[in-house]
Amino acid sequence: MVHIRRSTVIHAPIDRVWAILRDFNGHDRWHPAVADSEIEGGLETDMIGATRSFHLAGGEHLREQLLALSDSDYSFSYCLVETPIPLDGYVAHLRLMPVTDGDATYWDWQSRFVPPPGRERELAELVGDGVYEAGFAAIRTLLEPAPAASRQAAGVAPASAVRPGPTRESVPGRTPSRHDERTSAASGREAAAQATAALSSPPTVMSGSVTATTMVLERFGGPECLQPGSNDVPAPATHEARIRHTAIGLNYIDVYSREGRLRLVEPPGVLGLEAVGVVVDGGESAGLRPGERVGYATLPAGAYCTVRTMPADRLVRLPDDIADETAAAVLVKGLTAEFLLHRVHRLQAGETVLVHAAAGGVGSLLVQWAKALGARVFGTVGNPEKAALARANGCDAVIEYRDTDFVEAVLALTDGRGVDLVVDGVGRASFAGSVAVCARRGHVISYGQASGDIGAWNIDSLATRSLTISRPNFADYTSSRSDLANGSERLFEALRRGIIKPQIGRRFALSEAAEAHRWLEGRDSVGANLLIP
Fold first, then answer.
1. What is the side-by-side order of every strand in the sheet holding 438-446?
2. Is the pLDDT score of 192 beyond 50?
3. What pLDDT shows up at residue 197?
């Protein structure tokens, strides 16, 4: 699998850039590589599932399908459905974000595909330079201020000659191709080289305070306590960085915070410990530059927003081969699995493990990682669909606790011995059983309380089998810069090697945070869920 990612800054307002790019049938009017294009079946250009059929300047015929489009976050995704170029499984995502209070536009363009062996570099350069860099250069030439003589010399029509793509209010339909309104192939290649050089310069940054959209916890209580709001995001101090979020992780600890069981936020405040995004300004103290992708999984809370300022040393630089949504889905949950299995309990090959909520966000990763470490893994789940997922993740046996007493099942599976390790994020409903199925000198890790507090326990009751009970805190295992760096590096390596494969359950708009909490608490959630700002 090859992952291509290129980005740039266009010095034009985001609405002007988006008006051109959102027309899924308009790339023949601005991209130098495209000769003509039409939407099959007469569909609207912004209809999900619409397929554009087009020819390249060299005569090659391709077909691409629109997978998603969002005017609220200026993004769309598409895939190749027919091409003579060997880009198997090609899926691309394009997104714009405003910088400098809307006077310039940050453009991110990325894709994944599987090339034939030995052609990885060739095809990566074809996509990265021939498609993305050439596209950047063409739009920059069309929209950025430049002397008229320079535009004439480049053979490019003025920006006013480019017809913008349709908006929601405009009449849908195909506008005929106009070759005199786009860059020639030759000038496009030259402009692409200029664009590559331009990328070495840092993007324009914000100045002063900006306003962010947030979801505010107005009081402790149910999901209805989360309401839309806004706040001022100050310019970063010398030890800080300001980030524009692209994806926000949803975690059960957010529910505890909302209810007041964990006082991580005092109302009115903003929940959330996990997000990824792009550095807008600041970050120099941690070696970060504007435009770099970063993520975090840490206090202070406040991730349910579009923009925030964070301590720079709490940010993790994201590798190019880890996508934004993958990182947002895995940072808290993956770092939790990392410290549970590598530091709280150093899991050894041959040990037997019981994972509660084995199809959940953390549970799925625990199962996969424990299996990769050579353990025999059992899991508890709530329904057949989750049981199927747990088995797919590597569980040797899956117990549906609503129909089966998991204590009896685990003891039967182990011939009465019990398991060496129980990893329990459920709490009150499962903890007594977790203790009961633990083998002599076994270890119970209670890392969450989704069903409620476990209550008071007599420590003497553990002595009959010399049991160990742990109640680790995420913050204590990620508090130092070295802990955070080492844990995230182990996590990213596990992702690269396919040891863990996070599954994204549902995506909610940031404004739907209350609904997302209801979904999470309904115990129907599978995998990791995201808020998209």
1. 397-400, 376-381, 352-355, 419-424, 438-446, 468-470
2. no
3. 36
